[in-house]
Amino acid sequence: MIEITKTGIEGLDSILNGGIVTDSTTLVSGNPGAGKSILCLQYIYNGVDQFDEKGIYLSFEENEADLREAAESIGFDKWPEFVENGDIKVYDKQVLLRENDFSSSLDLLLDDLEDEEYDRLVLDSLAMFNLFFDDEAEKRTYLLKFTDILRSNGLTTLMTNEQGAVFPDTEIGLENYLTDGNIYLIQTPTDSGVSRYVWVAKMRKQDIETDIFPMEIEWGGIQVHENASAFSMMSEEDSPL
Ligand SMILES: Nc1ncnc2c1ncn2[C@@H]1O[C@H](COP(=O)(O)OP(=O)(O)OP(=O)(O)O)[C@@H](O)[C@H]1O
Ligand SMILES: [Mg+2]
User: Fold this and answer.
1) Which CATH number goes with the domain that contains 219?
2) 94: containing domain
3) Cα separation of 26 and 126, whole Å?
4) d(CA 2, ligand 2 centre) in Å
5) Count of structural domains, the chain
6) Strands 181-190 and 25-30
């Protein structure tokens, strides 16, 4: 029986066939503004709010105040309270980028990673994390080492990556292969604004829905409409792919 960690986003859990595989690492890819950070905030917030699971949020891009403001602006109003009482542990860029190399940053985190209190982890973003490394081989070694540490400590993880879903224009990076799950957030401009979609391209050990589904970002966070396949709703030229 495979254990599942729910994101708490109903439509997404549904297309994931229940949720994310517990202890796995999933890459959340998308262009700037696609909603990667919001999905991650929501995953950590729902963990505490709905499932009594504590979370660690590693942000290489924002400081703690930015994260709090982003969370509050979308309606996760108990975020500050959860951080205050330790249900959510934030390591922001000021803390993480103070160290010169990843080993020293990892040392900072290790106590919390090994603490069985936490179930969920976010790393936002891999692009910034990669700046610690000089070459691909070193980066790959550390990514593997890091995901191993997360897995062995029972942390179910989302990592964000700036990458579009239009293949073959987009190079598929090693990180796509090294992670257990790949979720793409896609946005396309329309006359009235933007259409948003989510595509779960892989989730090891899970029988997922691999169609592309429409989603919205609104007060309360991301909503995925799992009953409507994007393609059945769209004309050819509106297709995101
Ligand atoms: N309260 C809100 N209501 C509706 N849409 C919102 C709200 N707050 C944010 N958004 C939308 O979400 C988008 C930002 O999402 P997010 O910060 O998660 O993107 P991202 O993929 O992390 O981008 P980046 O790669 O730049 O970090 C904004 O561009 C905005 O369109
Ligand atoms: Mg972001």
Assistant:
1) 3.40.50.300
2) 4-238
3) 12
4) 30
5) 1
6) parallel
